[in-house]
Amino acid sequence: MYGESHNMNSDDGDVVNKTQNVEAVLQYQFDFGLRPSIGYSYSKALDVAGYKDSDRLNYIEIGTWYYFNKNMNVYTAYQINLLDKSDYVLAHGQNTDDQLAVGIVYQF
Hints:
It is built from 1 helix and 8 strands, in the order βββββββαβ.
């Protein structure tokens, strides 16, 4: 999926004149309840006052869900952050570390 926005995204009070975003996800649902997933997200800020064009997001996420039944599932996701520590990233306090998420969901 590709998206583009103009004068909408705010970074600490500074409006980004233009952003370009790309996201892609690949998943497969097995009959026995397992759903592996891999995804990619990228967002670039363009024409930012005081900075050259800079990456806002850039990561790969690998995860899996397991569905016990229609109401309950568990998941885990590992996000591999590909952001460089540029002046823009450091000035806006963006995280450049990898992240791990785990959880359990019950839907009523």
